[in-house]
Amino acid sequence: MIFLSQLLYLISHHGFLFIVFLMIVSILLAVKFGKIAIPIVAFVLSIISAFTSQYLNAAFLNAYGTRTTAVITKATETNSTLNDAPIFDYDFIVKKLNGSYAQGTFSTTTAAIYPIANSINIPQEGLEFPVKFIPGYEKNIVILYDESEDGKRAKLTEALGDLNKARIQYEASPDDHSFTQEYIDALEKFIRENKDQDMTDYESKLAELKKAL
């Protein structure tokens, strides 16, 4: 597992070096065996790895990693951008199994984040957040964003947006049974997905709507 973690870290964090190494090896093999297809395949693989290595690393660490916590100690804005947004370099410390800390780095473009999504969400500097890693190679971590405080707040905000939409529809036309049912469904989903919050008021409203319906 340590070797796989090291390999995936190399590919996802030092992609250019990996591509150069892969192409050199493939050219040497092509010369030795007279197979021109080898560097062609290597080139295709290098292109694929450039777009998928981050996600593969995240999935691997989430599946086989050990849970712990980490803290971003420094966030530095670079001169590069991604989709018109600045790319940041991050320094972090991660708690090892013996309670001591190891240091590591990642950037906006190399961070492994789970669940895998199109957006790149990084926890705030100075706040502890959950991660997974392979013991023995602690600097390769996957950020469990949805379980972080930032992730929970973002999820709650999104859920409130859906709930408010259903509430506004219902309040505009309380006699419309379809709007009432949609509000009930939204309340049930909101309560189910936010059990760690105080849901007393929402549960009362849900009971009131079900009784009226």
Features:
213 residues; alpha+beta; elongated
Description:
The chain is α+β, with helices and mostly antiparallel strands and 213 residues long. It folds into 3 domains: 2-62, no CATH class; 65-144, no CATH class; 151-212, no CATH class. It is 53% helix and 25% strand. A 6-stranded mixed sheet has the order 3-2-1-5-6-4. A hairpin with a 2-residue loop joins strand 1 (66-82) and strand 2. Helix 1 (2-13) crosses helix 2 (15-33) and helix 4 (149-172) runs antiparallel to helix 5. The model has no long low-confidence stretch (mean pLDDT 88).
What kind of sheet is the major sheet? 6 strands, mixed
Provide the β-strand percentage band.
15-25%
Q: What is the tally of beta strands? A: 6
Q: Give the strand line-up of the largest sheet.
A: 3-2-1-5-6-4
Task: Indicate the low-confidence ranges by residue numbers.
Answer: none
Number of helices: 6
Radius of gyration: 24 Å
Helix content: 40-55%
Q: Give helix and strand order, one letter per element, not per position.
A: HHHEEEEEEHHH
Cα shape? elongated
Class per helix and strand makeup = alpha+beta
Terminal Cα span: 56 Å
**Average pLDDT number:** 88
Count of structural domains: 3
